[in-house]
């Protein structure tokens, strides 16, 4: 009898929507919340265990199931839960996947089932109101210490601002929503709630690193920034659909890590630098947590004369790492080396993805700026 019930639960996994985790989309979930009626992956099951008043979990394959639990799972399932618990998710709200950090997945699960934010829209106020202010811990540019700073996000002014002193009249920095990006970087920042915000100043990238002790608070800030960008883009591109705009709200970096580089004359030695590939901008930093990039390389498309090659020109000297990459641009060659072959493979793949993609009209303007940089 117990075997039959377990087999019945396993058969439910074949139904549409049940073959992927209800919360993060990971394939082949083998856990279930028998109080919510959803199939979930091992990673999300750990988060569900932390909200026992809402969700109780079992292994689909290992635990014993009683008749009532099997019937409950059969009458619910992932698609039915989505129709209920995700009925009013705003277009701009970030839906995490299994490759996202623990914090984003945890807050998504809590928002859905515990706080029921997507059933009761009034609960979305903290990130949908168009204005937000509060204190966040911000990493100091020179000393690396995190200090409490007042932040203000205002859609009306199209800006995120922060102030060095609570009573300061003028902000220390004004970051235009138009050029803002935010991405969670817990490992890099050394805090599970660490958020990296980048913006353009004089067409160069600036970084700030922030966190809040409260996970909900920092995820609300993240979604408030996405909401502000969404409303800005709706005005900037009046004919565009939500589906066109959502991928532009915030972006994770294509690739980050250490490589060695040499200068334009290729006569000085190679130096180890931290590289970040942000769309078509390849930036390099002395340290991963630097506020400013030491330099940026624009990577266009193959139609515009950009190529990615494995290896270095035969005469190249001065590099310690053996796995070379050459990026050919219309103006010059950029030479990089990676420590391992798998590193090189990942970087080449990231570069190739960008080179294979045709350039958008606005990207030609960015390319022209790079060419005229002093």
TrEMBL record:
One Pfam family hit: ArfGap
Matches recorded under InterPro entries: Arf-GAP_dual-PH_domain, ARFGAP/RecO, ArfGAP_dom, ArfGAP_dom_sf, PH-like_dom_sf, PH1_ADAP, PH2_ADAP, PH_domain
Organism: Sciurus vulgaris
Segments forming domain PH: 129-230, 252-356
Protein name: ArfGAP with dual PH domains 1
Domain named Arf-GAP: residues: 7-126
Location of this chain's protein in the cell: Cytoplasm
GO cellular component: cytosol; nucleus; plasma membrane
GO molecular function, one term: phosphatidylinositol bisphosphate binding
Keywords: Cytoplasm, GTPase activation, Metal-binding, Repeat, Zinc, Zinc-finger
The UniProt record lists the keyword Repeat: yes
Record keyword Metal-binding present: yes
